[in-house]
Write a structure and sequence with these properties.
The structure holds two protein chains of two kinds. Chain A contains 23 helices and 17 strands. By secondary structure, chain A is an alpha/beta fold. Chain A has three domains: about 170 residues, Thiamin diphosphate (ThDP)-binding fold, Pyr/PP domains (Rossmann fold, 3-Layer(aba) Sandwich); about 160 residues, Rossmann fold (3-Layer(aba) Sandwich), CATH 3.40.50.1220; about 180 residues, Thiamin diphosphate (ThDP)-binding fold, Pyr/PP domains (Rossmann fold), CATH 3.40.50. Chain A has a six-stranded parallel beta sheet with strand order 2-1-3-4-6-5, sandwiched between helices. Chain A has a six-stranded parallel beta sheet with strand order 9-8-7-10-11-12, with helices on both faces. In chain A, strands 13-14-15-17-16 form a five-stranded parallel beta sheet, sandwiched between helices. In chain B, strands 5, 6, 7, 8 and 9 form a five-stranded antiparallel beta sheet that branches. A four-stranded antiparallel beta sheet of chain B has the order 2-3-1-4, covered by helices on one side. Classes of the chains: A alpha/beta, B alpha+beta. The structure holds thiamine diphosphate and magnesium ion. Magnesium ion (MG) binds next to helix 19 of chain A.
Chain lengths: ~600, ~160
Amino acid sequence: MTGKHLLLRALKDKGVKYIFGYTGGAIMPIFDEMDKMGAFRFVMSRHEQGAAFMSQGISRASLSTGNPQIGVCMTTSGPGAMNLATGLADAYMDSVPMLAVTGQVATGVIATDAFQESDVVGVMMPICKQTYMPLAADEVEATVHEAFYVANTGRGGPILIDIPKDVQNSQVADDYQFEAKSYRPNLPGFYYHPTPEREPLQRAIDLINRSERPVMFCGHGVVNSNAGKTLLKFAEKVNIPIASTMHGLSAIPADHPLHLGMMGMHGTVEANRAISEADLLISFGMRFDDRVTGKLNEYAQNADVIHVEIDASEIDKNVATSVAINADVYRTLHVLAGDPMLTYKPRRRWFEKIEGFRQVMAEDLRQEIETGVGDDGKLLMKTIVHQLSELTDGQDLIVPDVGQHQMMAARFYNFQTENSWFASGGAGTMGASLPMAIGVKLARPDERVWSISGDGGFQMNAQELGTIMEQQLDVKIIILNNGYLGMVRQWQTLFFDGRYAGTPMQSPDFGLMAQAYGLPYRKVETLEDVIPALQQAIEHKGAIVLEFVCDPSEVILPMIPAGGGFEDMIVKRPGQQTPETSNSDGEKS
Amino acid sequence: MKRRAILAFMLDRPGVLNKVSMLIRKKMYNVDTLTVCSSRKAGVSRMTITLREDDEAKVQQVIKQLEKFTEVVSVKELDTDHSYWREVAVVKLEVPASHLESFHGRYNFEVLEQKSADIHILQVAGSTRRIDSFLDEVGQEHVIEIARTGVTALEK
Ligand SMILES: Cc1ncc(C[n+]2csc(CCOP(=O)(O)OP(=O)(O)O)c2C)c(N)n1
Ligand SMILES: [Mg+2]
């Protein structure tokens, strides 16, 4: 048996069904063997970055379901491997377990600057949870098993295995043995605490019972540990409102009466103001990044913080905790939801106050959504997302790209399906949506999947239309075309005196592009046409491209300027009333 | 700033040292010394890191970040009261032998070689401060070349 065969055997044993990738000299032997084995569905991306995001899509959409799969991509050495870097860095930031297998030049020529040799392990080490380079065929299988274990144990993350070509081809000894079933990794120091300890839990319970103005945080960890329902049970039991991080969206129904919506830079007024005024924050599975907290020394100054998090290094990193619970989110919530010592409080004044916060923007938003077009008569993104949400009853799977349209989708899609929101967050990688949606569709084939991109991001991985065509995947593709790199334009409007440097953009004829890939297409320019177009996409069997011509001056509000505190939150449109624009430190989005 | 020592045991796998040094750069830790040797256990290395940091939370961050590496078996901070921190310096000095005599007994050094009447190669062992003060007393101007190992530490 050869290294390549053992690699594929291990992938098969780990339940891998799809392999995304792109061939080349250093990976050919594995591709050849894969073809012979016939055990996988190979999906050829049109760029290796696409393959990385497709793998992410598989993992993100399936790992918390009954049919968990870890996404796997494979590329050749040198440029093939380097093209994976953005997708791996993105997975690392968003704690997405996935495996990248790259071919490497043969051990005999490593370190000679051979053709297409790159130090792949060296490059990927800081952006992967772990990297491996097996140097003999008999190490390969155990390496793959360890990789899967590490990827998906504790906080998830991407793993890279770089396999020299001669290791792929070489034979193991006749007495080689490997038992997949009984395999246990030999990692004596790699542990995590799944179960919460009683002592901090008790202190948490005391704080919760004593608090007058608590807010609960729903982070990515709630989605990943499939704990949405348990979170709701707990929240209802103690009557505490919930704010979500961007990645926490879809863990609970967005319109649940206790839900305040998204928090942070583009979070709702009610979530952000409630956090500012809270006396207790109970946070589940999140990491208090700067898009969530704003200026740290002004953040939630009067609140105690209970932090439940599987990754110990995230606790006390940015925000000092009163109670640290280093444990699995689901298990902790399960204990809390059943704890008889926790008491229900009506908190009438607190909820009244929050309702007041909600009213700050509610009427403006309602009117804008209803009007549906900007001053120039072009469509508003929020109205399109709102209509999509209504037509699909908030049931569908949403894969946004990065930019204004992403924040609009986060804010105005009324998520009803658990784990139905798949977004590049920590890295904010434009171009993630189209390939990620492919992975999501393959992981959850019976559900409707919408890829929603801006005109900018769509063109960053538009080549994956080729993959959609070839694989005949039913992904509904929406382009919200505002003619600009809108999110950056928004910053320019607010903080750069309206100088639009490097943001206006000419796009190709998206209709002709769709046609080139044999996909139906519809351009939507009027409010009346929004619903019929969305309806057409829903009824059409297969992929379709819808382009909406959007108002470039629409802004996503509220907004807390980068580096600013919650007090700096902008709630009025430019021109509507002079926005407070203090505290921008010129940081780029 | 306060000097701290962190002791870590880690599996002796390729790239571990690389990871630690990358972490130091990435998180911009203020590291003074880093020493690695094998431990009593086969396949497990022993690493001592000293750094300057007053902020307790930051030191805890270093420890937690190290613990995240799958190769790391254990990490802890060693405080000065309950551990020995030692290093060795090999020094080439240009100084009359008689001058050196006066330090015998007060400092723990050994003459490895006398190259000429006033060129000596010495080995000095002890705490960082002890070695510093030896060099100060001898006179830094007499030092031609010096090699220091960096700190290694052991719990009492
Ligand atoms: C790969 C990458 N390059 C640059 C950026 C910085 N950036 C963030 S949002 C954005 C604009 C996105 O424009 P578009 O895709 O048209 O979406 P819109 O904001 O207009 O909805 C840019 C350039 C990024 N996030 N990712
Ligand atoms: Mg745009």
